[in-house]
Specification:
87 residues; mainly alpha; two-stranded antiparallel ribbon; 4 helices; 52% helix; globular
């Protein structure tokens, strides 16, 4: 059975530090900052900002939009195997 990423990083702290450094650089990129800003604005507009336990997520659609969807369905889809990632 394959290890989860959490198990891998727990067993290898140097690898985890390397990932943290990469993530720090990646999240500083202007295109990532713009993307986060757009998603935050959409969540604020949908009155979902800061509401982690409401049961609804903003789900990305194939046409590029965002729609409210049950969090279980949205997160279960997630692109595993042959399943598509988008609603």
């Amino acid at each position: 059975m394959a290890k989860s990423s959490a198990q891998k990083y727990r067993d290898n702290p140097a690898s985890y530090r390397k990932k943290q450094e990469y993530d720090k650089k990646f999240n500083r990129k202007p295109e990532q900052r713009k993307k986060r800003s757009e998603l935050s604005t959409a969540r604020r507009k949908a009155k979902r900002m800061g509401m982690a336990l409401t049961g609804k997520d903003l789900s990305h659609t194939r046409s590029g939009g965002l729609v409210l969807e049950d969090s279980r369905k949205n997160r279960a889809r997630n692109g595993h195997g042959r399943n598509g990632r988008l609603k």
